[in-house]
TrEMBL record:
GO molecular function: aldose 1-epimerase activity; carbohydrate binding
A GO biological-process term: galactose catabolic process via UDP-galactose, Leloir pathway
CDD domains per record: galactose_mutarotase_like
Pathway(s) where this gene product acts: Carbohydrate metabolism; hexose metabolism
Pfam family, one: Aldose_epim
PANTHER family according to UniProt: ALDOSE-1-EPIMERASE, GALACTOSE MUTAROTASE
Species whose genome carries this gene: Neobacillus massiliamazoniensis
Catalytic activity: alpha-D-glucose = beta-D-glucose
Protein name per Swiss-Prot or TrEMBL: Aldose 1-epimerase
Length: 348
């Protein structure tokens, strides 16, 4: 088990550093102190060939100019908040409106666009990166000085564990996730339409025309949103279901999980044999199939296009502050926010 680090670039006068964790089997995870971005995850396929299975760039300038949150930690609140405002304790807070009139993924200068203080921790059976950041009272419109910690731990079982902690001196909102785009084909050889996804979820959240939850929770049965027995991602891309069409022919929806920490999310690419199993304490996962990725940039020699990756954003339900029947994302003053998600990489 080892950790190495090297300069990745410079932004706004600050050095950006890349940290690479490597286990005894040759699996590695490289991440930046800028946005806690996971820029590569190298895992073997069924023939033992080690390749990168996440989308990313090789320069900080590309991340700044083109990245649709590739690999980043997003917050304070992941997803959209309607009209970029919310009310807490009879006070209205106006947030940064960075998605038309709405607030998206923490705002203009969210967790994904700041440099985190980083420490390396080594153990016989695991290595860890500890990222910390103080989000000051009023940042992007949120109340409270929020002390945040994100840890990435790589084990010899080819498991990446991501843990989040937060504590604020005022009542505030907090709902953090990682926004990695997975493509198990390796080095983006194919799109993800042939990937098979299994989700322990019997319901999903309906979206309105602005991609904000309407408040309605819909059953997945007899729809392209039923992943309980596994289905190909292409089913959503070719579907005539109004919710698939709404988000650009695919998925960009929160699914409510029926179980936690019990292999509740499984993604498989038959051709490479790679399998990703995700376990979390969170109530939901947002499945996004890169329906809006577009073709206006390239990444590591590959031209971008829709469906080149998919996100499994384990989190609370977006815009829950406006829907009291959703699991709340309110963090009380002095309360400790804690959340953990595990990503197990294997072959079938």
């Amino acid at each position: 088990m080892r950790i190495t680090h090297e300069p990745f670039g410079e932004w706004d006068g600050q050095l950006v550093t890349a940290y690479t964790m490597v286990n005894d089997h040759g699996m590695s995870v490289t991440s930046l102190d800028y946005g806690c971005i996971i820029t590569s995850v190298l895992t073997p396929d069924k023939n033992g060939k080690i390749e990168n299975i996440v989308l990313g760039f090789d320069t900080i300038e590309e991340y700044r100019e083109h990245s649709p949150y590739f690999g980043a930690v997003v917050g304070r609140v992941a997803g959209r908040i309607k009209n970029a405002e919310f009310e807490l304790d009879q006070k209205t807070y106006q947030l940064a409106a960075n998605d038309n009139s709405n607030h998206l993924h923490g705002g203009v200068q969210g967790f994904d666009k700041v440099i985190w203080k980083t420490e390396m921790v080594k153990h016989e059976d695991w290595v860890r990166l500890e990222f910390t950041y103080l989000s000051k009272d009023g940042e992007e419109g949120y109340p409270g000085n929020l002390q945040t910690k994100v840890t990435y731990t790589l084990t010899n079982e080819n498991e990446l564990q991501i843990a989040y902690r937060g504590e604020s001196d005022k009542r505030t909102l907090l709902n953090v996730t990682n926004h990695s785009y997975f493509n198990l084909s390796g080095n983006v050889k194919r799109d993800i339409l042939g990937h098979q996804l299994t989700l322990k979820s019997s319901s999903f959240v309906e979206l309105g025309d602005d991609l904000i939850p309407t408040g309605q929770i819909l059953p997945v049965e007899n729809t392209p949103f039923d992943f309980q027995s596994g289905r190909k991602i292409k089913d959503g891309a070719t579907s005539e279901h109004s919710q698939n069409i709404l988000v650009g022919n695919g998925y960009d929806h929160p699914f409510l999980l029926t179980e936690n920490n019990r292999n509740e999310i499984i993604l498989v690419d038959d051709e490479s044999g790679r399998m990703l199993t995700v376990e979390t304490v969170q109530p939901a996962v947002v499945l996004y199939t890169a329906n809006q990725l577009g073709d206006h940039f390239s990444m590591r020699g590959v031209q971008s296009r829709n469906y080149l990756g998919l996100c499994l954003e384990t989190q609370g339900v977006p815009d829950s502050i406006h829907h009291p029947h959703f699991p709340p994302s309110i963090l009380e003053k002095g309360e400790l926010y804690q959340s953990t998600t595990k990503y197990k990489f294997s072959v079938v």
